[in-house]
Amino acid sequence: MIDLRSDTVTKPSAAMLAAMASAEVGDDVYGEDPTVAELETEVAGLLGHEAALFTVTGSLANTLGVRALVAPGTEILCESSAHIARAEQGAHGVINGVTMRTWTAPRGQIDLGQIRGLIAPDVGPYFVTTAAVSVENTHNFGGGSIQSQTAYDQLADELSQRGVALHLDGARLWNASVATGVPVADYARRAQTVSVCLSKGLGAPIGSLVAGSAEFVKEARVWRKRLGAGWRQAGVLAAAGLYAVRHNVERLAEDHANARAIADLLADAVPGCLKPEDVETNIVVVDLTATGKSVAEVVAEAKAEGVLAGGVGATTLRLVTHLDISAEDCRRAAETIARICA
Ligand SMILES: Cc1ncc(COP(=O)(O)O)c(C=O)c1O
User: Fold this and answer.
1) Which residues face 153 on adjacent strands?
2) pLDDT tens digits, one per residue of 211-228
């Protein structure tokens, strides 16, 4: 099977498993796991923040980051297909007690005009106050799109002038950085809280981090425990994370090239299904409208031919490249999908 459903499906490599097996561990709830501490310090440094906290998922990292910026009863703004809005099972409402309003923009981009129009200052008991804006980079359901650097910087400047906080959902910030050459810290420093994942393109079996000020991380550690997600000898997992950030970042460029090759082949074979230039990182979104086939049909037929793809919308299919997929796998997968859609 060539599994292109997500970059979360990777299996730890032999070298990563060896690093996990030899990890020094301790009880992290007591703050005694040296490998977890090393990972948190290293990633905080990479992101240009004072501190970071290792969490089981990106969703938990986002929940902790947003919780710190948005008091219950106030709101966070995000793009309407953002992961925090669509795919975290309402955690920000259920756990954080925050409300959300959204803007909608092609490929999940920042739209300054819409955001300016949405921001509601504190006007007393009439309207919900906007406490923060969340930006996702790269944007998952936007097709792995990279946020415009100019718009991001302008947004960060305007928010700081208006006293509105910024959360960065950087689950795939590594992909954005490798594609643009902009260091992850340059993106991350602009936000008060930032989440990053190790379990996506970087190939760790589990784990994310949320970074911010030392004070934020101290409180987030309490909240992580409160939510039942304190962990003990987590150094075996942190070792996989350290291996991932030290060995698997630069190679994301291969995943980006593989995704672009899939896009080029499909654009030629299935006219109108995508624009290759929209594929900036490791996610290819294919519009099946013109093929007359449903997402379910294409997914099932591809599976029968050894290719796993995922549906992300009524008419859209998603193919995600990752480190367990070769250029040859990608060529075969693209030819299979092209044949099915032709
Ligand atoms: C942009 C984005 N943020 C957050 C997450 C959440 O990560 P997790 O699945 O580890 O909770 C994902 C997962 O795909 C994602 O794509």
Assistant:
1) none
2) 999 999 999 999 999 999
Ranges assigned E (strand) in the chain = 2-3, 51-55, 75-79, 99-103, 130-136, 165-170, 193-197, 208-212, 283-287, 307-308, 310-311, 316-320
52-108 residue pLDDT tens: 999 999 999 999 999 999 999 999 999 999 999 999 999 999 999 999 999 999 999
Q: Is the peptide bond before 102 cis (omega within 30 degrees of 0)?
A: no
Is ligand 1 within 6 A of the CB of residue 58? Answer: yes
136 lines ligand 1 (CB under 6 A): yes
Question: What atom of ligand 1 comes closest to residue 6's alpha carbon?
Answer: 14
* Residues paired with residue 77 on neighbouring β-strands, in sequence order: 101, 133
The two tokens of residue 51 are 């501190």
Q: What spacing in Å lies between the alpha carbon of 222 and ligand 1's midpoint?
A: 22
Q: Is 315 in the pocket of ligand 1 (CB under 6 A)?
A: no
